[in-house]
Task: inverse folding
């Protein structure tokens, strides 16, 4: 009976397969782009009998200072994924509107659109990189939202800010350009936040899951001007942020914590550079993409190498990219964790 009540778009929906959705055992986890730096958090709360602030002022103020924006340009969400959902729910009409994405890219854009019966105009990363703005605008067509993951997951490629600005200008009366900056702390000079002063149709997605080492907190931010955020405030749940989450997020955005985060990013970028050298020198690796996030994506000479790594307890993320199923994404872990990758490269058959 329940199945017969499902709308067709939900009945045929393929759920997003996250790095943690499969029951895998291992001892070295490099599959979910998590930070290897764990945090010890102490929180004292004596008012859990009360509802939380819908948008905790202390966190909004701290993040707006970090992002160099005003507080009214910041909306706190349950991970960047909720930001994606909110944008579609607010600006797209089901069974009528569409979004544009550039594949291969983050899978939740498609899942969120499919869930809400919103059409998808799937363009390619090569088109985003190579096409002139006039041609790109024509290809995007009447899409209401244009998602640019920057740096892109899983390829790690970057779209220059000036190209994003030109695209926003071309689409300023027809679409929102949504720049997903989940990994921007690993290439901070490439942020599109500065475009908010010139464009009302630019939206930036942020998260505390990657560089801030708080994937378990599920905290994200929508950065935009009033023209975008005011309608979203009508749609967002009345109490989206728990008191405990707000307390921890406030700590994570203190001056000292941000300094520590940047120090850890430098360490991870150094580890990434070392890993890329190992991969480039390995005969078992046929191609290494120039990733700018906290991961490196590569093509293996033999897909069977992935199974050998898993048996040894080193868990990385396999992908099918560009029509081939021998791609692998390796999250940047600690030096000890990446040594396990080196051993795998040297010892696998």
Result:
């Amino acid at each position: 009976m329940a199945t017969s009540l499902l709308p067709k778009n939900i009945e045929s929906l393929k759920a997003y397969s996250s790095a943690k959705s499969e029951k895998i055992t291992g001892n070295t986890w490099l599959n979910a782009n998590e930070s290897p730096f764990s945090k010890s958090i102490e929180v004292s709360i004596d008012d859990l009998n009360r509802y939380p602030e819908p948008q905790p002022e202390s966190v909004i103020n701290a993040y707006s200072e970090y992002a160099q924006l005003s507080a009214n340009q910041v909306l706190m969400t349950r991970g960047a994924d909720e930001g994606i959902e909110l944008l579609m729910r607010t600006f797209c009409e089901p069974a009528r509107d569409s979004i544009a994405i550039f594949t291969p890219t983050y899978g939740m854009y498609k899942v969120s659109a499919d869930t809400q019966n919103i059409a998808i105009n799937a363009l390619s990363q090569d088109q985003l990189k190579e096409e002139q703005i006039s041609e790109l605008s024509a290809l995007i067509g009447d899409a209401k939202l244009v998602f640019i993951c920057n740096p892109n997951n899983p390829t790690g490629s970057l779209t220059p800010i000036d190209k994003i600005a030109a695209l926003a200008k071309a689409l300023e009366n027809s679409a929102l350009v949504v720049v997903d900056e989940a990994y921007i702390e690993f290439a901070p000079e490439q942020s599109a936040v500065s475009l908010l002063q010139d464009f009302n149709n630019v939206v930036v997605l942020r998260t505390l899951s990657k560089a801030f080492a708080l994937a378990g907190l599920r905290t994200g931010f929508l950065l935009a001007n009033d023209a975008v955020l005011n309608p979203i405030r009508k749609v967002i749940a009345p109490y989206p942020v728990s008191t405990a989450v707000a307390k921890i997020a406030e700590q994570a955005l203190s001056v000292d914590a941000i300094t520590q985060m940047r120090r850890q990013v430098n360490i991870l970028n150094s580890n990434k550079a070392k890993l890329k050298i190992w991969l480039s020198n390995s005969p078992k690796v046929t191609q290494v993409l120039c990733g700018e996030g906290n991961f490196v994506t590569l093509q293996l000479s033999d897909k069977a190498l992935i199974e050998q790594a898993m048996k040894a307890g080193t868990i990385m993320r396999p992908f099918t990219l560009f029509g081939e199923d021998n791609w692998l994404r390796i999250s940047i872990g600690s030096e000890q964790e990446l040594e396990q990758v080196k051993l795998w490269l040297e010892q696998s058959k």
About this structure: The chain has a mean pLDDT of 94.
